[in-house]
Amino acid sequence: MLCIIPGIIFSFWFILTTQTIVIEKVGIIEGMSRSKKLVSGNLGKIFLLSLVVGIIGYVVQQIFGFIGGFFTNTPDALTYSENPELITTYLDTARHNFIITTLFENIGQIIVMPITAGAFVLLYYDLRIRKEGFDLDMLAQAMGEEVPAAEETPTYDSQGPVL
Fold first, then answer.
1. For site-directed labelling of 19, which of 27, 63, 91, 153 has its Cα 20 to 30 A away?
2. Does residue 18 form part of some domain?
């Protein structure tokens, strides 16, 4: 228990390292320190997001495992053990089941991974907005774009716009 809890906290500190490295174009060490800085004080939010994403992933995996089960057939080991000539049929069936199961598990992962990545990218931007006041102007400047000047808003009086 003394190793598990610190390990979980340690993993939460560095959960945004990938997003920091890719978005901010920094090195590994700087990305890890930025992740820890952004996450500090928000471990509860990180835990809840990880829990929700984990539950979604688990449900999707179970659904695809269930669907994959329709395409497999479970061989009766007793039938094959009584007749040694059928052992190759048993092994072929087991190999077929393994391939089908792996295929459906991979399809489930293909669906879940973008959801997970998107959730943590949104968390990264949420924490930057809350901690650093990050806004679209800062994003445009970081990408090397020129920020357009704000248009003057007309003033109004009781007669309408003042020119």
1. 63
2. no
What backbone phi and psi angles, to 5 degrees, belong to 162? -90, 125
Q: DSSP state, 158?
A: T
Contacts of 33 (CB under 8 A, 6+ apart): none
Per-residue pLDDT for the chain (163 aa), expressed as one digit of tens each?
Answer: 778 888 888 899 999 999 999 988 999 999 999 999 999 988 899 999 999 999 999 999 889 988 888 888 766 666 666 666 777 777 788 888 889 988 998 999 999 999 999 999 999 999 988 888 777 676 667 667 665 555 555 666 666 666 6
Number of structural domains (the chain) is: 1
User: Is 24 part of a structural domain of the chain?
Assistant: no
Residue 21 lies in a domain: no
The domain of 128 spans: 49-144
